[in-house]
């Protein structure tokens, strides 16, 4: 079967950075199927890059190689690394961008510091390791190269910290960590955080949202739902919640829980 | 030969929705060549989605599977369907988005309501059927799965209505239904509608355009032409007609025909 | 091994132009791996198109076919051409867009005027040669078709002229010719132009930049560096030099050289 390599970067569509990386990958492993996850990570936004690849990676076949290049420290002292986790491989800078998709807790977790320069392009620039290091290493791994040949095994890598959620018996304090194409406001509160307790209302910006929905097809102006990745989300059916509320990433969110004994929302 | 699957969505490039769908398709049919038609359909704009896939599909090889996900009713009562037409297959919501590309008039037209949940992802969300239903079904069909295995044959699907053209002996009333990258104003008037009659002028916004061209390489400020898909179009050579006229989708267009007997424009 | 075809256009992502071209290529050569270099060349900007493919092409495998469609003269008298150079093939309009990537100086340079209409789509529009001529010819070449079968050998093609650099003993006058995603200001001055002389300062807009860096990871507000393609560049570490200086393409740049005998910057 053909190898699969995905790309997640902050390179945008205007330049030829992404095309150039694909040329290198195909030069190293001609049969590769290359798939874009996104190249619209905001410039140097490691957290959004980490969220994007974490959302997509679980849906790719075993053996897929994910190259993630959001790299504000390119050419400086940060390490270039490759990580094995969940039967897939991840290549990128050691700045936390890989850690949501390839968490240390994976049973097959291994990581190497990319030090084998024989695998890189012969001339390595100081400013475009996506082309000169990550793409050729991704191609090497895609064609079956062993992780341990790419560098030295390391025990730990830089971990990304998502903003913490503060939970008490009656409320959960979180924040908006992402706004999608449709203006849906995605919080850092996972469905599992609710622990089967019933949500009474969600406060965000100047409003209190008390309607809940499972879909975007609703008659309410604003609803709370659990999105397809398992995060609590505030949405405006067929409109943009971000535009309606005038809020975005970083906005505090307060989830008010029903004060009775544990009950599922289905009991309502 | 490798199967081909195309994607047409309103997901935009910023999130990982599209990449995730591709992961599912490759997980179901590893050899697939996946091609993007566009992901910049305006959010929930079923008509633009229908126009995009209708323009592109005829140029793809027989057997191509087109997944079209512009789906304002996701998770609600609209059906998920697959349609065979013109030796190709189309997968998407039953909201009209497929009907320009896969019209009922095709001699090989067949449609199924996607009810065989064995083909879907094991956990189906209420908000992302692109990932959970349409992608795995597209992968199934791409690898040769039979349409009838995906669901129950149905006799009719929701048809998209394009805005109607009103034609009389001396004029055709239409409207702008699309504006392309270059600011060309594409109308809902097909070349065949002219029925070989000669166009004298086209009125749009506050202007009357009386120049005609076959190309964008012209010295006039505004011209009327028949575009590469057969639609009547108002264009500004090397500039944006939309910007010059300050008009866009929905703008009325009046085509004035020459009052004599049928004659082709080539007679001018 | 599967053939590779790249696409570089000014078609943008909103329409189905690019997807349609890919359908034609796959219809002619089903095994092709199609790679986007970029479709965000500014409309009709031949120079940016030429820079994009010139930056990317060297990183693709031998035999790659590059289709470059930035074509303000489509349907008019400009020729459609294909060029062989550096063991790759290039297809596009004869307006200079191919000449940076496929320079006449390449030892294997050959060019043909695309006149063999048997290779084109059966119906050729006046406005979309990307679909009707360039895509099918690219598919033909990708599947091993001989260049000479696509048309008649020609001795010269239209050459693109980059804005000239004016160099004297103590200074080099150039200009900004590109602004990348990160706001870096790329000049038309190549590292080789410095001829190992030491740069004292770079004047651009209202400022004089005297700091130099090899990476974007620096504490200075603005730095001069040689970018990954070998061009002199003014950058703002982790910010946008273009936004800070309020300048873009066309802005004059003056490089002041140290008045002593030839010495490399490494001597500092």
How would you describe what is shown here?
Three copies of one chain form a homotrimer. Chain A is of the alpha+beta class. Chain A has five helices and 15 strands. In chain A, strands 8, 9, 10, 11, 12, 13, 14 and 15 form an eight-stranded antiparallel beta sheet that branches. A seven-stranded mixed beta sheet of chain A has the order 2-1-3-5-4-6-7, sandwiched between helices. In chain A, a hairpin with a 2-residue loop joins β4 and β5. In chain A, α1 runs parallel beside α3. The first copy, chain A, is elongated and about 60 Å long. The first copy, chain A, starts with a strand and ends in an 11-residue tail after the last strand. The relative contact order of chain A is 0.13. The model of chain A has no long low-confidence stretch (mean pLDDT 94). Chains in contact: A-B, A-C, B-C.
Quick recap of the structure?
Three copies of one chain form a homotrimer. With 268 residues, chain A is an alpha+beta fold.
